[in-house]
């Protein structure tokens, strides 16, 4: 094998249909020889290749592309693929245009224009290797999977000499509309500050450059050191997938939807290695909604619920179905499972797992307006016929439908607050007989508001307050907020 030079060549309308992966327009294998491939002023248009259009390989991998245009090539592999067996790679791509090229799939799915392969022998350090990429345009290229213009697994690309390159309007089927580096961007990627990279997409989503997912971060706003929840309460948690550039991996093709996150519950052990379980039993725990997958970069546990005995626990995050390196930026959450509310009934399912149930009363109990349903039994039984229909303040009668009236003739003292300033005085004769109090959970009518205001103003009139005029201008809502009656 000798040095080969191709200059001032025009190539159009050819089809390369040999064995898959080996059908290339140029297949240059230098073997163990220190030889070089030079391509200068080559114009390629409208070609089809059953492998990489130009494939350079061998012990010593040296080639130059200069002042060339490669357009409208459909290939089962990248337009240029560079693989070196002993990491002796010298590549120069300058003053060239790669446009409207399309990489199809047959196992070689990455790198619409240029593919830099992984170092086959990473123990060999070649100090003479050199990569130059200058004054090139990569536009409107497409890769079936990753890296619409450039794909790199070469961990010395960071040493490359780059300047004045444009990567624009390229697309990829999965990630890296412009450039894709699977991992280790600090070594496998050139200095992108010397590139004009913009308007590259994955489908309709803007995606100039990216890596594989590298870390998962919790996005839920958790401020308390220990989260208090009642048995069966929902605890929504959101996790987001990021690449090495700290960009959200918006996986609109759902390629990474196979990554599963699972929340588990364990006892919380303090510094003395004592667990706080309140006689708990990990066999009697039921977690609902504790598994999710990623959708557009987020994994949302919207319906995560914990059924466990009251006690202190920690929530751990487990990742499944991903063999690569992934940082879980997530500290275990400390939670305290609280008992059922006083107005709830402690129940157990067939597995002995505790849960809370709201008592049920007869349909004639107005629990949505003037009554509460109180449990008769505290555990195991929710008896509609024995649970108590209890009137809330301001209501009475068998079914809590009768408004309760108060005789204000016995009112001895009124307290009225205006602008947080209390005005207290004894009542002499308010000429008020009775008025129905407004329960805290009911909204008073406009007439009731005005009546309370009338009472307050009358009291001010009796005591000859100087600020009665200004008090008259206060809204009914304001008065209702600050009027208190002491019996």
Low-confidence stretches: 276-280, 411-442, 459-487
Oligomer: single chain
Which structural category fits the helices and strands? mainly beta
Bulk shape: elongated
- Measured distance between first and last alpha carbons: 109 Å
Q: Total domains, how many?
A: 4
How much helix, percentage-wise, in residues?
Answer: under 10%
Number of strands: 46
Describe this entry's structure for a reader.
Helix 2 (446-463) crosses helix 4 (476-482). A hairpin with a 5-residue loop joins strand 40 (395-396) and strand 41 (402-403). The protein folds into 4 domains: 4-211; 215-338, Sandwich (Immunoglobulin-like), CATH 2.60.40; 358-404, no CATH class; 406-486, no CATH class. Residues 276-280, 411-442 and 459-487 have low confidence and may be disordered. The strands form 10 sheets. It has a 17-stranded mixed beta sheet that branches. The chain has a 7-stranded parallel beta sheet with strand order 3-5-8-12-16-20-24, with no helix packed on it. A 5-stranded mixed beta sheet has the order 26-35-33-28-30, with no helix packed on it. The protein is mainly beta and 487 residues long. The chain has 4 helices and 46 strands. The protein is elongated, with a radius of gyration of 38 Å. 7% of the residues lie in helices and 40% in strands.
